[in-house]
Every structure is written in structure tokens, then in C-alpha cells.
Design goal:
Blueprint lengths: L6 E8 L5 E3 L2 H7 L3 E5 L5 E5 H12 L5 H11 L3 E3 L6 E3 L2 H6 L5 E8 L1 E6 H7 L5 H8 L7
Length: about 150
């Protein structure tokens, strides 16, 4: 049985004036030496280990050639960059990605199964209230997740 990377947890960090962030130590081993960062959904960035990025890109490649599929491919691929952390575990977030995710100072890393989300703290707090979790959990029962 193949063991997949599993990211979980929430870590608060800051971004420096040059646009560099320190990857939380708990995530570094699973990420490996090279990984990919791209635009995410809901106003954050997605950070994928190389293997998971390749699998995601293959799924994007397999989409039909219609306009929505092409737009989705461009959304995730146009700003995607390969990253290698420096000796301190820092990576540089390109200006366009920082702007899209509103990353200015305080940021939050969130482990979400096979990827890491990078949020501005303000967006994280505004977009992630859990007031309606009971209703969401009930909807997920159709996918075999029962509580």
C-alpha cells in the first residue's frame, strides 16, 4: 500500500519584505526538495509536493478541450512556479501570487491532505468560520462520510 503525504494542522507565520516565507518544519519533510506553488481557491495559494503536483497536472491535462476546462487549466498553470527552499527553509512567493492571495505580513499555513494552503491571516479568519458545519457534514454523507 502506497503512503501518501498527509498535511494537517494550522501554522501562523509572517512574510518578509522580500516576499519570502518560512515553510513550517512539520511540512518540510513531506514536501521534499522541490515543490510547486500556484493559485488556489477561495483566495489562498496551493502548495503541492512534486509528486502530487504531477498527478494534479495529469488530471488537468485529461480534461475535455472545452472553454471551461481551458480556463481552469490556465488558472492553475499560468502562475504556477517550482520552488526550492533555501537553507533556512524559506521560499520566495512571486509578486503576482502574493497579490492574488493578499499576502502582506501575517500568513497562515493550513495542511489539507495532499496539499498546503497559504492564506493571509485576515482572509483565513474571514473565510473560515465553522458556524454551518452541521449542515455541511450532513451533505457529505452522500460521499460516504458519516459522523
Amino acid at each position: 500500500m502506497q503512503v501518501l503525504p498527509m498535511f494537517m494542522g494550522e501554522y501562523n507565520h509572517t512574510i518578509d519584505s522580500k516576499g519570502r516565507i518560512i515553510i513550517p518544519a512539520r511540512f518540510r519533510d513531506e514536501l521534499g526538495e522541490e515543490f510547486v506553488i500556484t493559485q488556489g481557491l477561495d483566495g489562498c495559494l496551493f502548495l503541492y509536493p512534486q509528486k502530487d503536483w504531477q498527478e494534479f497536472a495529469a488530471k488537468l491535462s485529461a480534461l475535455p478541450g472545452n472553454k471551461d476546462a481551458r480556463q481552469l487549466q490556465r488558472y492553475f498553470l499560468a502562475g504556477a512556479v517550482f520552488c526550492e527552499p533555501d537553507k533556512q527553509g524559506r521560499i520566495l512567493i512571486p509578486a503576482k501570487l502574493r497579490e492574488n492571495a493578499a499576502l502582506e505580513k501575517d500568513i497562515v499555513f493550513v495542511g489539507v491532505l495532499n496539499k498546503i494552503e497559504i492564506w493571509s491571516r485576515e482572509r483565513w479568519e474571514n473565510n473560515n468560520n465553522y458556524d454551518n458545519m452541521d449542515a455541511i457534514a450532513e451533505q457529505m454523507s452522500q460521499f460516504g462520510i458519516n459522523f
